[in-house]
Amino acid sequence: MAFDSKFENGRVVTPDGVQSGVSIGVRDGAIAAVGAPSEIGAADSVIDLDGQYLLPGVIDCHVHVRSPGYEHKEDWSTATAAAAAGGVTTILAMPNTDPMIDSPETVQQVYGIADEDAHVDFQSYAVLTSENYDQVKPLAEAGVPGFKVFLGTTFGEIEPPDDGELYAAMQDAAAIDRRIGFHEENDEILSFYEEQFKKEGHDDPIAHSHSRPVVAEAEAVSRIMLLADHADAPVHMFHLSSGTGAELVVEGKADGINVTAETCPHYLWFTEEVMNEKGNVARVQPPIRDADERDRLWETGIHGGGVDCIATDHAPHTDAEKNIDEPFADTWESISGFVGLESEVGSMATFVSEGRLPIEQWAYMHSTRPAQIWGLYPRKGSLQVGTDADFTVVDPDVEWTGRKEALHSKSKTTPFNGEEFVGKPTMTVVRGTVTYEDDALAVEEGYGKLVPSGKTTSNAKPRSGPGN
Ligand code: DOR
Ligand code: ZN
What we know:
31% helix; 9-stranded mixed beta sheet; globular; binds (4S)-2,6-dioxohexahydropyrimidine-4-carboxylic acid; alpha/beta; 6-stranded parallel beta sheet; single chain; disordered C terminus
């Protein structure tokens, strides 16, 4: 029986290495064969990748889709169009919506909206608060891949459970092998400095960064790991921003704590100087750190195993909410977050082209590992026969400049506007179907499907470089 399609002449990237001269045959949306071109039979359509890289589909496990409730910022159609354009095949949505995703009913609500509107595959976290901390099991049964707790105040102002409730929730999550992820900033430190800086009249963009010092992240990481250690529970640090945080995670892993961590391209690309160059465009929480923290995040996080995965924290807001016409005006009048789905592959490919990140480690951190952490593996995050045929095709030679006008998100605000990349996503394939190619969306809304999720894997030591 012929394949529906086959992908030829790609350089196939997996965490184990790069293989040239490998063809992939696809049938019914799944990978049906991987092998030498001579071993792969006929196909209805043949896609010649002409030496480009083919990675297991990039998974962005940190996307604020905003629907339900804040569709003026973003919706499932625009967020997933941005994903497809950016080379992303699966997104995991954040639950700080309105209503927030905190019950089996709201989980079904967001799944229903996404099922109608999504261009790529999806999942959604549920949030845990004082109201629902004891609902871990029913929420997992409703389908969510994991949970989010907002320790630091951020958009949506969702309060976390208290420590007793959190510890109990961790034990419940541990019992069913589900992971709780955190916005890990100590809220008391943040509010103290915000108030102090406002009183003293500091309102330039970098004042926002300095009001959320590294110690706020370090304290939260340490406290979560202490609770997780006692509860024997899997925990995850979303958007880890500092070398200090990464060093703590490395220590936690060495102590046997089942902790995983994510960082975002902006923490690796910029330093806090970007606040003086681009103003509140780059305002985000946790903030972008100084050069020393950034360099140590590379060293201990990326090269030393402290960081497991890459995600964007794609956080769209309107221009008016960001006060984008006056990026250097009073930072306390602006809002945190910016879009990232359409620059993440470009920024990571650029790190690869600069020799700072082995391409197989990129595939691991941006596809395999998030799939493992959130229970989507091996259906997602692998190129094994029988799994979903999700591919991110990257031309490593294309030099391009981030242009806000080209974005598919409703929000065009990103500090990556004007940045120069080497390596561009040229084709996005979800379950065997091309969703984006030649700068155009190639599927309708509703093509994207819910990804079933299961148990999280443990924090098996992440690879820290080629050959490890
Ligand atoms: O800057 C941020 N914006 N950080 C977050 O954690 C949340 C996000 C948002 O939802 O806007
Ligand atoms: Zn976020």
